[in-house]
Fold:
Amino acid sequence: MEHLTNLNLLTERTGITDKNKLLRLIAYAKSIHSENMKYNLTGHKTLDETIENLIIGSLEPVKNLDVPRGTLFGDMGTGAGIPGIPLGIKYDESRGILFDSNQKKIRFVNKTASDLGINTVQGIDIRVEDAGRDNKYRGKFDFIFTRAMSDIYTIAELGSPLLKTGGIIYLYINKSQEDLNNHIKEHITELGLSADAAPVLKGITKDNITEGMILTKTKETDDKYPRRMPVIKRMAMK
Structure:
């Protein structure tokens, strides 16, 4: 674990130079590890795994991203706060809404954020498809992030209604546009998204995101989306 908690190495891997932010990331990883001793909050059993896979894994791919002050990001299926809390620590001039329907995990997210003095993120106990139909959240976000929440078809349908036009969904996956079949491509287009259009928000380019997939919102999403999850899942299997 020593090699992972070395602040210089964390700086190299995450792009964070502020010592207080680095220490806060480590404290957050320790909170996850401690909670895992009580119940299965994540699948990572050691502090070493938590730091490497959850903390660094959330920040390294986007470490060169320029996030303007006042940016609003959403985290779909946040679980224990991944990637939302690490992103909120690094980009502390932004605001984050962390969505999950698991009340126990959202309680952990909000308590941990409060304990660590992170006042720019908030966990919300709500199904993402319900958030997408709620005017409080619909069309409000500059970024939507998600890690291992679901398949691309489902993520696109849940994320697009939440985005402003010009915003992006960022998926932590090792796939490219070439990997998408026609069914998914057509659905993405129908939702007002594009897998190859250049993002138009300041500081967001494909050059400063090292991996993963970007879906850019190029036009408004039809009001019929998102549909109910059973429908989305059924259509995703076609």
About this structure: Residues 68-236 form a domain with the Rossmann fold fold (CATH 3.40.50.150). The mean pLDDT is 89. The chain has one domain: 68-236.
